[in-house]
Amino acid sequence: GERKSHYELYLDAMVDIGAQIEFPTKTIEKIASSENIFKSIDELQIHENIKEFLKFTFSIIEEGKPHKIAAIFTFGRENLIPNMFNEILREFEKNITDKDISKLIYYFERHIELDEDEHGPMALEMVSMLAENDPKKWNEIESISIQALEKRILLWDAINEQIQDKSWSGERAKKMRHTH
Known about the structure:
Layout: H1 6-16, H2 22-32, H3 37-43, H4 48-63, H5 66-78, H6 81-95, H7 102-131, H8 135-164, H9 166-179
Helix pairs in contact: 1-7, 3-4, 4-8, 5-7, 5-8, 6-7
């Protein structure tokens, strides 16, 4: 019933399921207020694959070629996430029964709906408009899209590794929260 960004919806959902949001919110605030995004990323106490994903993304933004920025956004995110979120939703609905996950379900459903119906098609149109009929731009779009997918796989691998590593979610996570 109220307007919220995807990020705000996500944070609300995380609070509802008992997740600690202090570390990610402070990290994002630190990065947002930084003079040098790359230095801030290097200073983060996060998995190297995640740092690599962030540095790749911001290096493409810094390069300033709209067709390449649109490509990593479209093919590394918008066209990819609905299928991934559908699968995550099915797993949540099967396995999480002891917590109220209604906001989390809403977050995923809304994200899927927007990406499938609006953001995805608009993103594809944006890439096409920015590339025009320029074969050089289309080659750059293909190349950077492949790189974006490779970086995203490394990001997901890092997340999976941390989920599997019980020490990450225990003492190591507590230590990191207290040092920031």
